[in-house]
Design a protein that fits this description.
Layout lengths: L1 H16 L8 H5 L11 H16 L3 H12 L8 E6 L8 E8 L6 E5 L6 H6 L4 E4 L1 E4 L3 E2 L5 H7 L6 E2 L1 E8 L7 E8 L2 E2 L3 E4 L8 E5 L8 H17 L5 E4 L13 H11 L1 H4 L3 E4 L11 H5 L5 H5 L11 E5 L2 E5 L10 E2 L4 E2 H17 L5 E5 L15 H15 L4 E4 L5 E8 L4 E2 L4 E6 L11 E7 L4 E6 L12 H6 L27 E2 L5 E7 L4 E8 L6 E10 L16 H6 L1 E5 L2 E6 L2 E3 L8
Parallel strand pairs: 12-13, 13-14, 16-19, 19-20, 20-25, 24-29
Antiparallel strand pairs: 1-2, 2-8, 3-4, 3-9, 5-8, 6-7, 9-10, 9-11, 12-27, 15-16, 17-18, 21-22, 21-25, 21-26, 23-24, 27-28, 28-29, 30-31, 31-32
Length: 606
Amino acid sequence: MKKLFFLFVSFCIWGSLYADIKELDPAVVLADTLYEQADYTMPSYTEFLVAKKAAIANASQDNLQALKDKVAALQGKEEPYNMVATVNGDPATHMGFCWFTNEGISDGDVQILAKKDATAADFEAGTGVITVKATPKTTMKLRYTGRAAYIVKASGIKASVGYKYVSHKALADNLTPGTEYSWRVGYNGHWSKIAHFRTKDADQGEYSFIYMSDSHIENPEYIKHARRCALAAVKTVPEARFCVFPGDFVEDGDKNNAEWEWERWFEEALNPVIMNMAMVPTDGNHDDSPNLNYTYHFNTDNSFNKEYTDKPQFEGIVYSFVYGDVLFLVFSMQDFWREPYSYISLTSTYLSDDLGRWFRTETKAHPDTKYRVSLSHFNLFSNSDHSTDAEPPLFRAGMLPVMKDCEIDVALQGHDHTYEVIGPVNPDNCTPILDAITDRENVEVNGNTNVTGYKGGTYRTDDGTLYFIGATCGRKRYYPHNRARMESEYTEDPALLHDDKHHNVKNYFDLFTGMLGQPEAPSFTKITVKEDCLEFNSYKADDDEGNVTLYNTIKVVRTKDHGVPSGFDDIIPESSVKEGKKFIRNSNIYIMHEGRVYNMLGQVVE
């Protein structure tokens, strides 16, 4: 009876306040049988539910108009969503694509047209259209709202509710270098909006790309900040070839993840960037989930997972590509625990052997690139709240020898949500190479926005790596630690290094040789690969109109040719290892291949 009375009162209120909106009958909208969830895409239906619940709670003209708009925006269940293009293979000729549909919708193609601003009519005409059939895969049931408190309350969907989707993936592998393309996904009668990307030039000269990180989508405020940053990035750098995004797309991972957060990342927060360029992603710790949301949403090169027995949790989080003068090494350290590891002895077989082998293999394969740039979520060095986490000492022990041997020029990092210019760092003793820094400006020190009082600078990476964190494109912010605090947290006792209160870098604060602070706004960095340097221009997004403030510029230069990594010289392809005869010696597995003995990593033993 209470429910019937509530509906009657709601009908009366709606009848009086909604009289001037003729297109909808409030009583019909309230009825649960008219707009069935199964008939519409999840993104559009959830937006409708949110507007409906708000209008029931407060039948204001604004809320009623919002509901009307969301009803008009409902999309049929056959429509695609969550579309994205990702670098996958040679960016001159290849591009990966991924998108979602509701469960049961398995048909899907990507259509690509060599025209900068193609229209639906251009695609329908068919001339020059490249069509690639997608491979569909039904996901496991993904919790939709999970722990995302906002959407549970706003939509009325319970935290335990989950849905299956179809993840569609396609790879175009015969594109023309240096070409502006338009693309869309779906099938006849059910096509997406049209997005754009440009392939790498055959003889690539100067170009720019965008760095953004750590959106942590969890509610409308976070969506607003990330979207503001995405709009500003596209307006400021319309010529950007791609956007690197080192993780923490969403806030809520693990098995109680919120697929709604992922949905909003694609459909709203980062959509301005997604529609205008390719993405270069890797996962963050907040993205971790046994439900494999990350794997379902991106289509990057998955060779690493195919070549190693102890595979990372997600597909395509370790991959490389060459773009002009730069070798990009995209990787994740989050699976350090999949092989033997120890916080006390600071060892991880996965980092030192698997990732180490991969880094050396990739750098050996591309000896002539002028710069080597890595991209990861977790930091080897950072200043703020993550500087005393348990993992970085273990990461440094495993990866610094690799960074040294492979002569990595720049390590683009995420995770710390603060703007940090670090090094170049001498990998042997974790000290700054001060004579590699020129043109640095001394400015007023500020306890939040610039703790070091440094601005600008040119950093030479001949003998060490520059580590860079570009703050956050979202709302979640950390604040820098001062010298006294960092010195008080130093310890040489390995037993204290996993208490989240200590680190093992002596004189840690000295590594922050450039600007260090919290920009207090959604931030992104334009990185331009020039003939004589890598130029970093970092911006704050000022408003929803795409206006920005430039707050720092640095340059990275290299004057030496890269050397060839020395480790893992006797590696053979894993396919050859698998063809050999396996045997056990001292509890370890070895392989006999063509008269030589190899371990399971493919390294020659005897």
